[in-house]
């Protein structure tokens, strides 16, 4: 039995005025409470209580110990309550990891909207094109655009993630519109090395499987925005996230091709560790993102 439990037993006996009343209040047997107080006295090497068959009273040492122990236990209880409150409330620093392209577009709007509604939370948003180790690098959550593999992390789907193939209308007029994915092998393309398969684009085939097409071109980049700019400049077909070129397609600056071959296996996920003790700030952010992306989906953003 730990020291704090012995201290609490002693305090309860003094407050209740006896072992029987203390035992009832604590839900323990009278013999066990008496044993704990006796062990405390043995450990301290002093008598804390004067006992008679009818009543108990504190010794001089017992009075001093009662005052100090009461103060210590109150501070411990206050600390525990404060920690639990801080953990459950939406407050503190929230560290978020996301890709640069998505962070510079839709995600930044969502994060700033979340901050506007939660004045007790501050955010450290890190944008880089790699999958961070959340636990090892101290992140609370990450936003991932991928086909989710088995993971020890908890994941909630936020929205579908579409990667589209686009080109400028003038480029299509010169090189013709591809009718099926294999046509891209003979047409200049923009190679984005951030893409999972680099110079191989993966499409759905007509039987529900996948087909890989090797592409080549004059432009190789490691940025979705740079790939977009290359497509706008008429330098080739580019594979890019739909959110990067949504406005360009709507305005006619780019045209979307091979839609019927686009894969729908990937999604936008929010991932985080530790479901058992999920902090208030993480819970609030995840719930906000789910609602925010639902609203955006209703207006056709994803």
Automatic annotation (TrEMBL):
Keywords: Coiled coil, DNA-binding, Transcription, Transcription regulation. The keyword DNA-binding applies. Belongs to the LysR transcriptional regulatory family. It comes from the Bacteria. One of its GO terms (biological process) is DNA-templated transcription. It comes from Breoghania corrubedonensis. InterPro entries: LysR-type_TF_proteobact-type, LysR_HTH_N, LysR_subst-bd, WH-like_DNA-bd_sf, WH_DNA-bd_sf. This is LysR family transcriptional regulator.
